[in-house]
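User: Can you predict the 3D structure for this chain?
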Amino acid sequence: MRRKGQPVTIHSLPLLSPRFRTAKVMLPNTGKLAGCTVFITGASRGIGKAIALKAAKDGANIVIAAKTTQAHPKLPGTIYTAAEEIEAAGGKALPCIVDVRDEQQISNAVEKAVEKFGGIDVLVNNASAISLTNTLETPTKRVDLMMSVNTRGTYLTSKACIPHLKKSKIAHILNLSPPLNLNPLWFKQHCAYTIAKYGMSMCVLGMAEEFKGEIAVNALWPKTAIHTAAMDMLGGSGIESQCRKVDIIADAAYSIFKKPKSFTGNFIIDENILKEEGIKDFDVYAIKPGHPLLPDFFLDEYPDTVTKKMESHGAGTKLKEELQPPSKPPSGAVKETFRIVKASLSDDLVKATQAVYQFELSGEDGGTWFLDLKNKGGDAGYGEPSDQADVVMNMSTDDFVKMFSGKLKPTMAFMSGKLKIKGNMALAIKLEKLMSQMQAKL
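Assistant: Here is the predicted structure, written as structure tokens:
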């Protein structure tokens, strides 16, 4: 957005790409963000770049504040390739080398942005680090990384941009962070990651109130998993069919930027705000339309919650009766899976694991099953274990078979709510390693 006293030159026309500047003058874009400056952390790829490209189509100035200057083998894209795409889309790009852990690099990028474009109108805190590991399995350097990038990086970048945002008529800060959901489920499996992401959300809570009337401060989070290179690394091959495209986040972010400054302190879910915009067909955002989608973190509608709701309406008794295990041992894929597992047991395996697992399976051939990797040579089969279980897992029989055969990763099953775990999480992770060893036989 042009500041008072800033001369209008041919070079300030938003849609004027470098190759046309010496040829003819093109009419400026009249989109909502035309001429505005959008500062985006982590904009070299994924969600950050998608938001940048959406704004660029309006003719916005994009500050690409990211640290990738050379392409990663598994994570393609740099600040320079992103800049080329932004210019091609109709925007103006300023690639800046920024590691949000470094306060000086943030300050330098903000100064360059103001010098080149005259100010900052929108800040998107997108940069994030993730490690889906429990307390004992998360190295200190990983904890420090997540806290420094997610929480501290968001705080420092906001702090550096706020003096300039206060001068803007648009003035938005948008953090890519979740609603503050205090369900222990979201802490017990990856406590450090949750704390780091919630730190970003707490910045929204505090800054929205602190700068009310001056700057709109909101959070945006996806309802389902979003397909990015990072998701491929987390979920493995085939995960993309359960995801939506980054476009849904970009469209949702754009909807937020159109709101007045009074729209602040909100924790927004992408699908919800787009429904308010009148969008009804969300298949356009699916990687594989019609395929079941993976719910994202921190948005829980799990079996326990559903059961409590049904009990409050008098339906709990019937539901519990339906979930009771059959009176006789079932047959089929579950029984065959346990037969193979039992045949694979050994004294060395029991000695290395030292845990008893109990599986509460729903659906056909369901019931209570166990895997004893603590006593003698181990045991597995139908019914409750002789010793108290260290870990209890709840899931459907179909998902159980898929998990043991390698078609469904335990981490993704847990993320999607298909798997519920109670007990010792470290021992649950041991079982995941054990399953990978058995998959060749299953």
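The chain is about 40% helix and 15% strand. The CA atoms of residues 249 and 292 lie 19 Å apart.
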